[in-house]
Write a structure and sequence with these properties.
Oligomer: single chain
Number of helices: 8
Order of helices and strands: HHHHHHHEEHEEEE
Helix content: 40-55%
Structural class: alpha+beta
Number of strands: 6
Strand order of the largest sheet: 3-5-6-4
Strand content: 5-15%
Distance between the termini: 60 Å
Shape: elongated
Radius of gyration: 23 Å
Length: 200
Amino acid sequence: DEMDQFEAFQRLLKEGRSVEDIAHTFGVTELTVKRRLAIANLHPKIRQLYRAEEIDADTLRALTLASKQQQKDWLALWDDEEQHAPTGSYLKKWLLGGENIPTSVALFDLAAYHGQIITDLFGEEQYFADAQAFWTLQDEAIQAMREQYLVQGWRRVEVLERGQRFYQWEYQKAGKKKGGAVWIAVSERGEVEVHEGYQS
């Protein structure tokens, strides 16, 4: 079955075959091999739950983001009749401390971030494991952006509270010389949108 294939790839890797070699042998991409190896590296009980169809593919894939300890913690929740083990998209949030912040939204150089970056082989996205460290750097970058707009001659540059949306219909378009302001909206996931030339 599918899980046997994952485990076969893992055996070949242990025998000294490279990811590239395995991909060539089976006529699949290297990313496909990496994804299957990530599943093969999951705790045996998790693989067993998937094989028995007790958990779905989304949950299995999300668990590839988990450390060995997180896998054990999740299994403890699964076995506890009084607790609820998160699954699917909720599981990803649980693993990432409640915030799924992708590296693609960072305004700063990733070299400045010293925390762990987790790779989602299935979504082909990377996430910040330390949300607090991300927000410290992101907030600094947003303030630097604000200062840059002020240097460019904008008299007013407003950074909205995190999670507050900017709705254009609540504002009037106005250029820099006519008192228009710059509004910077920041989502809970770290995305930054800049709206130039609007009056409230």
